Amino acid sequence: MNALSLIDVTVGLSGRTVLDSVDVTFAPGRLTVVIGPNGAGKSTLLQVAAGLRRPNAGRVTIGGVPLADFSRRHLAKRRAYLPQSPQIDWAISVERVVALGLTAHLPAFGALLSSWQSEIEIALARYDLIALRDRPATRLSGGELARVMLARATVGSPDILIADEPTTGLDPRHALDAARRLRQLADEGKTIVVALHDLDLALGIADDVVALKDGRVMGAGPAGEMFTETTLSALYDVDTRVVRSDDGDTIRFL
Ligand SMILES: Nc1ncnc2c1ncn2[C@@H]1O[C@H](COP(=O)(O)OP(=O)(O)OP(=O)(O)O)[C@@H](O)[C@H]1O
């Protein structure tokens, strides 16, 4: 079972309550989009869900088992986390960065398994990185680096993928491509959690939506029930229209 749950989670930073009694479950086989205005607590929620930040109160479980009961290696195999502004600090090739996503799967000592090379090839191809494979990751555009980090996060086939604004900086084709990949992973049964500001992209891929405002869950549920003019207007404090068309719905802020 790969349901990821935050149970009564509260986080305080520098004396401020950033997440306040958050209860939310991310279900396997579903893509959940976390939305909300700047500073709502989305990144903090994702960091807590990934086990990278300890809550001041409450707990996080995978399949009912507290994160604290997983070894670091086991947790690293089960879930991948993609930060909002990924950085590579030294010149390492694109291919090596993608290979880092397999670290938890590799033996700690001895020869590397050549069978993993095919997984790396697949990940490079999926994110349109074949031509960039030998480039230093420190010399990429923001969008190219975002694709590299997506490939790294998914190369080890984690059960749970937590991604913070993974399409930021991607051009329309690559953003759509990445969104479709995330959708596909959910369809394969993975638990996918994505913070997104691009609501039109979210509309196209989300099963469920968690709306955060001022550190609290303002609403959570199936995308069809959450992407309404009333909910979005209240969430962002701006008049919102959901425009229906044969090509799909779009959201306009007025
Ligand atoms: N280290 C920190 N110390 C104090 N406050 C912090 C710290 N990190 C974040 N915050 C505050 O916590 C709140 C939530 O931040 P968070 O990054 O989770 O929001 P967000 O919803 O992801 O925002 P954005 O959409 O701008 O990325 C913000 O008010 C932020 O200023």
UniProtKB/TrEMBL annotation:
GO terms for molecular function: ATP binding; ATP hydrolysis activity. InterPro entries: AAA+_ATPase, ABC_transporter-like_ATP-bd, ABC_transporter-like_CS, P-loop_NTPase. The keyword Transport applies. It comes from the Bacteria. Keywords: ATP-binding, Nucleotide-binding, Translocase, Transport. It holds the Pfam family ABC_tran. Residues 4-239 form the ABC transporter domain. PROSITE patterns: ABC_TRANSPORTER_1, ABC_TRANSPORTER_2. Part of the ABC transporter complex HmuTUV involved in hemin import. Responsible for energy coupling to the transport system. This is ABC transporter ATP-binding protein.
